[in-house]
Design goal:
By secondary structure, the protein is of the alpha/beta class. The chain contains 8 helices and 11 strands. The termini are far apart. The protein binds beta-D-galactopyranose (GAL) and manganese (II) ion (MN).
Length: 342
């Protein structure tokens, strides 16, 4: 009798242990960000100690808009970030106490590894300075990654080996899938936010926590003055990236997008599924993942938009009067020379 009782007790303890381990596992793999206020869009808490007198410099005046030359808010009330619309010092002080970690993915495949050093060097000067940044460099050539670069405090770099793709379009097509998998496997446990950057880019000015939000995208520097019917969206109905002529908000460039880890996970998962459906239908969207990104952001409105200051193109030069500060821009490259195929 006693033996039977002991047997039951042992079974109970074992069952309890299994349930406990399972709960622990579910918790650790859950995709909600670990700690930190990634939902600050709705509820940015201002710690009284955070705002020093020094930061309370300029009063916001309702009748004195800071920018009258450009749109600073979307019809769905998401801010569009331009120079002059925020005070960098106020933003920095507000975010300092949160100890946020920003995962940052960069794809450097084939000859594109040549852009890495300049990108990382400029990111160390301008990108999320003062926050924890984890760079994830996806490459087929790990030996080309400048791992000896000195990174600032709280910043580190991890190399992720990926297969060599034959066509540059393939790199663009696989990027969503690789980011999705990386988020599921490790990023979700380590970061609050994630930004995905093109490698053939350079930071010239501040890109800081003013760019953080649940779902963030940057407005392409070549199309922001044209009617949407002229945006280079995918226009063939057979593609999952199809957007009709009279729809869409802005044309976003895929060179930088990001947000809270959970939101970017949803974005990459959907785009990946759509890219695969297109592939089985034998269709490739006109601008590959960028077309799918634009479709996703048409259906799921970004909570914060970055003005073209955040994704400039050196080919456009310096003349645009609405651009007070170029922060991040595509470097001029010989496409025929760096791409593996036309
Ligand atoms: C180009 C850019 C491409 C793509 C295209 C869309 O300026 O280099 O990456 O965004 O615009 O038309
Ligand atoms: Mn590029």
């Amino acid at each position: 009798m006693l033996q039977k009782y002991q047997h039951c007790l042992v079974s109970l303890i074992m069952a309890g242990g299994v349930v406990f381990c399972w709960l622990g596992y579910m918790y650790s793999t859950s995709l909600s960000p670990n700690e930190g206020p990634s939902k600050y869009d709705e509820e940015l808490t201002w710690h009284p100690v955070v705002l020093s007198d020094r930061s309370q410099r300029k009063q916001a005046m309702l009748m004195e808009p800071v920018r009258t030359d450009v749109l600073t808010v979307t019809p769905w009330l998401a801010p569009i970030v331009w120079e002059g619309t925020f005070d960098p010092q106020v933003i920095d002080e507000a975010f300092r106490s949160y100890n946020l970690t920003i995962a940052t993915t960069v794809f450097a495949v084939g000859k594109y590894t040549r852009f890495l050093h300049a990108l990382l060097e400029s990111a160390e000067k301008h990108f999320m300075v003062g926050l924890n940044v984890q760079y994830y460099v996806f490459t087929d050539l790990p030996s080309h990654v400048p791992i000896n670069m000195t990174l600032g405090v709280g910043r580190r770099l991890k190399v992720v080996k990926v297969p060599k793709f034959d066509r540059w379009q393939e790199i663009s097509l696989r990027r969503m899938e690789l980011i999705q998998t990386a988020i599921e496997e490790y990023i979700h446990q380590r970061a609050n936010y994630i930004f995905c950057l093109d490698v053939d880019m350079i930071f010239h000015g501040r890109v800081g926590p003013e760019a953080l939000g649940k779902l963030v995208a940057a407005i392409h520097p070549w199309f922001y003055w044209v009617p949407r019917s002229q945006y280079p969206y995918e226009r063939r109905t057979i593609s999952k990236a199809y957007i009709p002529q009279d729809h869409g908000d802005f044309y976003y460039q895929a060179n930088i997008f990001g947000g809270a880890v959970e939101d970017v996970h949803r974005l990459t998962k959907t785009c990946r599924e759509h890219l695969e459906m297109d592939k089985s239908a034998g269709v490739e969207a006109v601008w590959q993942e960028e077309s799918h990104l634009n479709w996703y952001l048409w259906k799921n409105k970004p909570t914060k938009l970055l003005s073209p200051e955040y994704v400039w193109d050196d080919l456009r030069g310096q003349g645009a009067k609405e651009i007070k500060l170029v922060r991040f821009s595509s470097v001029i490259k010989n496409k025929a020379e760096v791409r593996e195929n036309p």
